[in-house]
Amino acid sequence: MLKIAIGCDHGGVDYKDEVVKFLKEKGYEVKDVGTYSHDSCHYPIYGKAVGEAVASKECDFGIVICTSGEGIAIAANKVKGVRCGLGYNDEVSKLMRQHNNANVISFGAKFMSLEDVKRRIEIFLNTEFEGGRHAIRVEMINDIEK
Predict the structure, then answer these.
(1) I want to staple 108 with a disulfide (CB 3.0 to 4.6 A). Which of 2, 12, 68, 141 is the partner?
(2) Which position among 8, 42, 84, 99 bears the catalytic label?
(3) Residue 41 a catalytic site member
(4) What was the pLDDT predicted at 14?
(5) What is the rounded average pLDDT of the residues 113-127?
(6) Rounded to the nearest 10 degrees, how much is the dihedral formed by the CA atoms of 73, 79, 80, 84?
(7) Is 10 part of the annotated catalytic residue set?
């Protein structure tokens, strides 16, 4: 079964806690890197932690959550080997896997319902990378990191 890293700042902690339960109920192994409270904290810490867990192959995929989903996605994307996109709708949550081989998905707790987040996680985790012409583009992204 897949192992999923998940992290958030104080703006995403309620969603993160619910998503952890959801993932475990689905049979996934979960690495919860925090945060664990509503106390103000710094989202780059958690974006980096999830990114490192995925880039090192300790985890297969990652999920990051903050108020908007943007800041923590930017932080995760700074980790070499991470391709994180904002799952702002169902189709994009699918396309980021099919076309971009994304390995981390980001959500904004203030702008998405928990039900939408859970559904988009399932879409993301159950969609395969198409390869082909998309593999060339992903390799171009990897070359930028070098």
Answers:
(1) 68
(2) 99
(3) no
(4) 98
(5) 98
(6) -20
(7) no
